[in-house]
Amino acid sequence: MTFASQSNRNKGSECQIRSTNLKGPAKSCTLCPRLVAFRQRNENLYPDFFNGAVPAFGSDNPWLLIVGLAPGLKGANRTGRPFTGDYAGELLYPTLLKAGLAKGTYKASPDDGVELLGCRITNAVRCVPPENKPTPAEQTICRNFLVDEIAALPKLKAILSLGQISHNAVLSTLGVRKASFPFKHGALHQLPNGLTLADSYHCSRYNVNTRRLTTAMFEAVMAQVKSLAA
Ligand code: URA
Questions:
Q1: In a domain, 221, yes or no
Q2: Quick check: CB of 85 below 6 Å from ligand 1?
Q3: Buried (b) or exposed (e) across 179-215, using 16+ Cβ within 10 A?
Q4: Residue 17 lies in a domain
Q5: pLDDT per residue over 27-71, tens digit each?
Q6: What are 180-210's pLDDT values in tens digits?
Q7: 71 lines ligand 1 (CB under 6 A)
Q8: Of 3, 62, 139, 207, which is the most buried if we count CB atoms within 10 A?
Q9: Ligand 1 neighbour 72 (Cβ under 6 A)
Q10: Number of domains into which the chain is organized
Q11: Mean of the pLDDT values across residues 20-31?
Q12: Pocket of ligand 1 contains residue 169 by CB under 6 Å
């Protein structure tokens, strides 16, 4: 289902009318009332933060799409660039640089000049959710932007999902049965539409601190994904 058709069911919000494109939601998207209320609270508490739907970052015609969960309050929601300033970015960006999927020096700022090479980073949910936990309804609403984004990437070969929520969002986006492709760290799923879906545990502070995900494990996934470019 395209976002345009879904939007007919959600009248009353400006950011609904979209064709298949890479724009993503408006910064001030109003589709999810709880996330809008959280944004308003954050605008009062942190007026210097970005405080909006965080746009995707990277190539506009990538072969690889990396899908995270949602912006962190004091990371991507502050800086306006996915994973930038978040703990998770401290592992993601250096791993991309090491794999040759990015160039520059990551300095946790959108002005650091980092350039992604052949890849793009987006999120399953574009606005920061309270306690980093988007509700199922918010995931469903925001998925329409992922539908449009994937449809607008003609060279796309692979998607790297960071965590199970991202994995499920991608499968739902592509209309693929979740039971046929269970989430598994390190798995490469060959999807019916020809795309490869790679799974990794999310590079979150919790997963890194508990050593569920080590740097070596994450680098191994990224190297495997990089080999799909050939
Ligand atoms: N974690 C994510 O999943 N996405 C971000 O943009 C930041 C942190």
A1: yes
A2: no
A3: eebebebebbbebeeebbbbbbbbbbeebbeeeebee
A4: no
A5: 999 999 999 999 999 999 999 999 999 999 999 999 999 999 999
A6: 999 999 999 999 999 999 999 999 999 999 9
A7: yes
A8: 3
A9: yes
A10: 1
A11: 91
A12: no
